[in-house]
Prior knowledge:
Layout: E1 2-6, H1 12-22, E2 27-29, H2 38-50, E3 53-58, H3 66-78, E4 81-86, E5 104-106, H4 114-127, H5 150-158, H6 166-182, H7 187-198, H8 205-217, E6 226-228, E7 231-233, H9 238-250, H10 256-260, E8 272-281, E9 284-286, E10 292-296, E11 301-306, E12 309-318, E13 322-327, E14 332-339, E15 343-350, E16 353-362
Parallel strand pairs: 1-2, 1-3, 3-4, 4-5
Antiparallel strand pairs: 6-7, 8-9, 8-10, 8-16, 10-11, 11-12, 12-13, 13-14, 14-15, 15-16
Amino acid sequence: MKLFFSYSRAQAQEVTDLVDFLSIYHDWWFDKKIDAGTEWWKEILSQIRDCDVFVFVLSDDSNCSKACLAELDYADRLGKHRIILQVDEIDPAFFPPVLKADNVTGYLASDMSRKNKLLRSLKEIEDKKLYVWSSENYGNIEEPPLPISDLSVILSEIQSKETLSVDEQERILNRLERLRAKKTEKEENIIRALEQFKMRDDINYLVGTKIDALLNKGNKSNPTPISNGNHTVKNISFILRDVIAAVANATDDGNIAERLENKLHNPNNIFGRWRRARSVQNNQNLPIYYPEVIIFNNNFSFQLIQNNMQTNFGSFMYNLDQLTIYFINGAIDTRSFQCFETELYIVQYMNNIPFNIDCYLRV
């Protein structure tokens, strides 16, 4: 018999191992070597029509895959004999509707005899000729259209000539991260999308550094460490690297990289009193002529104290990367920030480069 395997990319290794096991008994086909596109989809539909048994690998991922569900629906309308291999624990209430009447076979990794059980089921199907089918009505069965993957939708947005706001860029990046975590797309395709995204002219600096981090995650090579005298610092976040370099080059704070090694930015550390220790602007260390303290209160109000006098006040809000201050006179100032237990860095970017960096110490 000829078997067709429908599966999600996350189960690629499982399917490959299974095919190797069954290959001495049955012919088989699955789309491991075909690239996505119109011709790819036509070939898949042709192979479904030609198969004797349609094997659907039911997993959390295939249960949400547009391509897998389209293949399953097409096989159902063609009247193909189907075997459903359930590889993840899924409540039957969430099975695709066309599976309600099927005898779903448990195929969990914990069952060491699952391959032999499947082989016996296939032999029974072959012996009883349960797979016999007629192709007379195939011409009347409408072919499903090419499913548009989530990655294709994201790529269309990345390749758009329209300007993307920072929020839109963040949303695209989050969707790419979730898609990568699901492992339903080839890793090289995710990397290619990230590289295209980074090449956009309007890419925000912080988004760009996050893209670099994701690209580095997919790269087996280690990131370039920061050299700090005789000490080599490796565990520094990508967003913080340029800030550290600017401060270290412009001031006498040569230990900043070593001091912040293994430290994680926590925006919730913002509350409290902070004394301005230094300021760097355009790679120059600016003199501080009078003491300055900024206070971020728990009720999201702030006070600016200069030379022991309150010179401004208002409110503030923050998210993971940005701090927005609302002054009492109506002015609004939004900047990037990196906050640690005892150190705070408020950064203004210009042309995607840290231009002004105010460095504070907790008091």
